[in-house]
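Write out this protein's structure.
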Amino acid sequence: MQETEKLTLTNLAEGAALEKFGIALQKVLENIKDINTTLGAREINLKVTLTPSEHRDYVGIKIACPVKLATQEAVSTTANLTIDSRGRAVAHERKSRQIPLVADNVSNMEEKHVKGND
């Protein structure tokens, strides 16, 4: 009879159990770093279901690794309502007074610089 390796978490499903856990862990870590999510706890569950055969000479094994992530924070904005020339209601989002990104500032400065050299 061929010698087989004793079943462990490390070799379960040829390493798929640990791989599933690793993927779930990465999802949780990315969710934690997402500033748009709440600060609630996250969960990883490694669920192993063993179903014996009728004669109990072998067992079927299912592996699942569901994750419970924090939800996305809600985003709010406001809009001004006006009537267009056809009498229809139109909404225009109110712009925040947020300072533009650095890339926008650089583009604007480059445009001013180029125009100034003309």
